[in-house]
Prior knowledge:
Shape: globular
Largest sheet: 7 strands, mixed
Number of domains: 1
CATH topology: Rossmann fold
CATH class: Alpha Beta
Distance between the termini: 40 Å
Order of helices and strands: HHHEHEHEEHEHHEE
Strand order of the largest sheet: 3-2-1-4-5-7-6
Amino acid sequence: MAFPRLDGATPAERMESLYQPTAHLYDAFRENRLLHGRRDLMETLPLEPGCRVVDLGGGTGNNLEYLDTDRRERCARITIVDVSASMLQVARERIRRNRWHNVETVHANATAYRPPDGPVDVVVFSYALTMMPDWFAAVDHARSLLRPGGTIAVCDFYVSRKYPPDGGVRHAAWRRHLWPAWFSHNNVFLSADHLPYLRERFGTVRLDERLGRVPYLKARVPFYLFLGSKT
C-alpha cells in the first residue's frame, strides 16, 4: 500500500490496479488510520424516512458502518458506486454480512452513473474527489443527481489557497507544497480548489477545516468536511 504499482490506460484501470491487491486490507489501514472525519460526516447526514442516498466512489462501503441501524434503515435505498470491482466485492461481502436489505452496489464511473428512478436526496463523496481526475465534473454531476434542496456531503484531503477567502484556513507554505507531492505518488491529488468550487455550486450548510494524523509521521494533513444544499 505504501509503494503501489499503477498500470492501465484509463483512470478506471489505474484505480483497479491500485486497489485489486489491497482491497481486503483497505479498511484496516487507510479507512481507519488515515481517512479522518468520515464518522462526523455520516452522523450529520439529513436522512429523512424514505430518502435515497448515493455514495459516489464509495469503495468498500465502510462509510455505512457509521450509520446506526435506525438511520440506515429509514433510507429507501443506499447505492454505493465505484469504478473498482475489487472494492465493490468487499462492499458486497459487507452488505451480506450485515444483512443490509436496502443497500446496493453499482460498478460505474462517478461522472456517468444515473439512478434509474430520478433525483436522489443525498450524494456523498468520502475521500473520493481527490482520486477523480475530473473531480469538478463529478461535483457537477452530483448536483445534477440531487433533487432541489438535496444535500451533498464531502470529506477529503485538501490544501488551502495561498490567499483563502475571509474566514478560511490558510495553510503554511510547506503544507501547500508537501502534501500534494506526497499524496500524488498514490494518484491522490490534493487541490486548493475543492472548497471554493463546492461553495460556488452549493449553499454551505456546514464547513469544518481540520488537520489529521498520518500513520508513522509526526506531520498532520489537512482535511475538510462540507455539507451543502442544492439551491
